[in-house]
């Protein structure tokens, strides 16, 4: 069997402002040393490439932060470095962007740099919801950005967020209806998350909610908003291929599918995460989240790793269960082993899953309880 491909993720941490719900590794410091940052990213990729020797880079994802603020010449250099890792011509190269840093001229520069897919952080088309999320763009800015970028790049994904202040089933449904009238190929629809156990760091919204100074929709309301969005998107022909992701047929995010299929990824940049698996187990690293320590390590010729996690067979098996059950592909029941077949049958009887072509796939109700369902199958081993 040939070696499995891997994805390359590059994190660009600069933003024009920091949203009050964001726990990503971002900074608003100025100036942005774009060329120096590109030099360091390329240096890190070369240092880490030995762990992927003999394998081919299948996708490149430039995330953030707001990498649409990065100079196109720097983006082109990173794309060329990915080509040196075997990234084929025509392979998916995604750039994340915010509406206020999107227009046709920028899109042409990104396309010329090698970008062929743009993911735009719209979040909502409702002015009141956007203001309560702390976003700087308005509904018209978002629609203009989608149309202009799509006219140049073609393959445009949009992020929607529900469960925020002033949001409702009606605003969620209206967001989805406006979105499907636009030339989009892919939608990521996420609930606002303020759970301290999930967040990488405390954010202002979480602190204010905990102190009772801000109120957000309850769990049942959030579920209803997510279902309203899903119904509109699926009704417009966007297939739900993962719990939070919908796509036109054949235009699923190939990079994210690598994650959900438990493939490996080389993460470079401040705050980036990477993962490599072997027959004996695997390992995951997380880079320094602050640009200063990250740059200092690379200036010294060292890897900018802040922490590492060793993954044994049990951890890898549980991760595969968790990730596979997020997708429409589901989980191979035979891989689970016979000791878990009784639990699988119980999930099916409860209406949380169904078996198709030998794979366990979650129902709509099962997706709403994904983590709890997956944990019922943990500890199975697999092979």
In brief:
The chain is an alpha/beta fold and 383 residues long. It has helices spanning 34-48, 72-84, 104-113, 127-133, 139-152, 169-180, 204-210, 219-235, 254-260, 291-299, 313-324, 333-336, 341-349, 364-368, 370-375; strands spanning 6-12, 57-64, 93-97, 117-123, 156-162, 186-191, 239-242, 245-247, 264-268, 273-277, 282-287, 305-311, 331-332, 353-356, 359-362. The protein has two domains: 6-259, Alpha-Beta Barrel (TIM Barrel), CATH 3.20.20.70; 313-383, Orthogonal Bundle (Arc Repressor Mutant, subunit A).
User: What is the CATH architecture annotation of the largest domain?
Assistant: Alpha-Beta Barrel
Helicity range of the residues?
25-40%
SS content category: alpha/beta
Please work out how many helical segments DSSP would assign: 15
Sheet with most strands: strand arrangement: 7-8-6-5-4-3-2-1-9
On the 0 to 100 scale, the average pLDDT is: 94
Radius of gyration: 21 Å
Q: Major sheet: size, sense and barrel closure?
A: 9 strands, mixed
Describe the structure.
The chain is 38% helix and 21% strand. With 383 residues, the protein is an alpha/beta fold. The chain has two domains: 6-259, TIM Barrel (Alpha-Beta Barrel), CATH 3.20.20; 313-383, Arc Repressor Mutant, subunit A (Orthogonal Bundle). The strands form three sheets. Strands 7-8-6-5-4-3-2-1-9 form a nine-stranded mixed β-sheet, with helices on both faces. Strand 1, helix 1 (34-48) and strand 2 (57-64) form a beta-alpha-beta unit. The chain is globular. It starts with 5 loop residues before the first strand and ends in an 8-residue tail after the last helix. The model has no long low-confidence stretch (mean pLDDT 94).
